[in-house]
Specification:
Chain lengths: 115, 121
């Protein structure tokens, strides 16, 4: 039951587009005892389903910049190719640390900003 | 903070798209976060920002799943199919019910958690 609710919450957050994957990963790894690799795979598949369901609804309810989205998918695909190639060459720790720093800072600023 | 020049805006967006894909390809996930910030800089409205990011990351994630997803125990994933479907639909419907201020804070909190999780990894 808790498992269902945890997954449901992750899907709701993902459906809103605000994330949730990291929370789901924590659940899968620490509460379900999964290995990181497995959890990552499950998280990925999970998002494919929840995201697709959400997107169908979003597309019907709001005006999305589809031209821009298409461009970003192209750019993203190129980037993904470069990234996976680079992963075999560059030490992942450096980018991981940089990105972790950026996320923590950006996340904190966004969460605690005065509106 | 928003970028006014349309050319610079486009350049930033393309760079962000490239970067988001790169991060996903390199680390496995996280690129969508970059995208949300970039779309914000480009002046896209908050709810459209989040929805558009799903639209971009979905095919990219599908690509990842195809390339790397072969060693996943599918039986475990199958158990999550129902909450994924229900939650995804609910989330899309909730987007309009939650204030943009709260949405941004939730997003910020999740980004923070992602960052801390990455530090601890």
């Amino acid at each position: 039951m808790a498992d269902f609710l945890a997954a449901l919450m992750a899907a709701v957050l993902g459906g809103m587009g605000v994330g949730g994957g990291s929370l789901f990963m924590l659940w899968l790894i620490f509460m379900k005892g999964m290995e990181q690799r497995t959890a990552q795979g499950i998280n990925l598949l999970f998002f494919l389903v929840s995201g697709a369901a959400a997107l169908l609804i979003h597309a019907g309810r709001r005006k999305l910049p589809w031209g821009l989205i298409g461009l970003l998918i192209l750019a993203g695909s190129a980037g993904a190719l470069l990234g996976s190639l680079a992963a075999g060459i560059i030490d992942p720790a450096l980018l991981r640390h940089l990105f972790a720093f950026f996320l923590t800072l950006a996340g904190a600023l966004t969460l605690f900003r005065k509106t | 903070m928003q970028i006014r020049s349309p050319k610079i805006r486009l350049l930033v967006l393309l760079a962000a798209g490239l970067g988001a894909g790169f991060v996903n390809g390199f680390l496995g996930s996280g690129g969508g976060i970059l995208l949300v910030f970039a779309l914000g800089l480009a002046g896209i409205a908050p709810r459209e920002r989040f929805a558009a990011t799903i639209a971009v990351t979905l095919p990219l994630s599908a690509l990842s799943a195809f390339l790397y997803g072969r060693h996943v125990d599918l039986s475990a994933a199958l158990g999550y199919l129902l909450p994924a479907l229900i939650g995804g639909c609910l989330g899309a419907l909730f987007l309009d019910k939650i204030s943009t201020a709260l949405l941004k804070r939730i997003f910020g909190g999740l980004v923070l958690i992602a960052g801390i999780g990455l530090i601890l990894r």
